[in-house]
Amino acid sequence: MSAYDRRDLGLLLLRLGAGGVLAAHGTQKLFGWFGGHGIEGTGQFMESIGYRPGKASATAAGLAEAGGGTLLALGLATPLAGAAAAGGMAGASAVHAPNGFFAQEGGYETAATLGLAAAGLAVTGPGRLSLDHAMGHFFDRGWMVPTALAATAAVTALVVGARQRRLDKPEKDEQFDGQEPLFEE
C-alpha cells in the first residue's frame, strides 16, 4: 500500500468516525433518536443554557451535527460540512468550557475534538475515497474552504457572543444591589 493509498484510507476512517458520531448526536437533537430529546426537549435545554430562541437553536445545532456529520462521512461538500460541524462544536464547547477540559467532569474535550476533526477535514479535503472525488470535487473547490470556515466563524462568534451577553447580564444587574441603573442597555 503506497503512502497515497494510506492517506485516503486514513481520511476515510477519520470521516466515518467523526462524521458518524456527529450525525448520531444531531439525530438526538432533531428526532429524539438514540436516547435524545428531539427538537422540543433540546429546545428547552438550549433556552436554559442561554441559546435563544431554543427551538431554532436546537434545529441549527441538530442540522450542523446531523447534516455536517453525514456529509463528512460521505465525503460530500467537505468544506461546508466540516465548517458547519466545527461551528456547532464551538457552540457546544462554549457550554462545557466552565467545567474544564475533561469530559468526565462535563468539560469540552469531546466537543473540541470533534470540532477540530471536522475543521481539519474541511481543510485537508476528503481524500479519493469520497463522493467529492467521485463527482470531480464540484462541491469541494479550493475557494470554498476559507469561505466556509470564515462564514462559520463569524456566525459562531455572533451566536456564542449573544449567549455570553445573556449569561453575563444578570451579573451586571446584581452589581446595582437593587438600585435602578442610570443607563439602559
Automatic annotation (TrEMBL):
<keyword id="KW-1133">Transmembrane helix</keyword>
<dbReference type="InterPro" id="IPR051907">
    <property type="entry name" value="DoxX-like_oxidoreductase"/>
</dbReference>
<dbReference type="GO" id="GO:0005886">
    <property type="term" value="C:plasma membrane"/>
</dbReference>
<feature type="region of interest" description="Disordered">
    <location>
        <begin position="166"/>
        <end position="185"/>
    </location>
</feature>
<keyword id="KW-0472">Membrane</keyword>
<feature type="transmembrane region" description="Helical">
    <location>
        <begin position="143"/>
        <end position="162"/>
    </location>
</feature>
<dbReference type="Pfam" id="PF07681">
    <property type="entry name" value="DoxX"/>
</dbReference>
<protein>
    <submittedName>
        <fullName>DoxX family membrane protein</fullName>
    </submittedName>
</protein>
<comment type="similarity">
    <text>Belongs to the DoxX family.</text>
</comment>
<keyword id="KW-0812">Transmembrane</keyword>
<feature type="compositionally biased region" description="Acidic residues">
    <location>
        <begin position="176"/>
        <end position="185"/>
    </location>
</feature>
<keyword id="KW-1003">Cell membrane</keyword>
<feature type="compositionally biased region" description="Basic and acidic residues">
    <location>
        <begin position="166"/>
        <end position="175"/>
    </location>
</feature>
<dbReference type="InterPro" id="IPR032808">
    <property type="entry name" value="DoxX"/>
</dbReference>
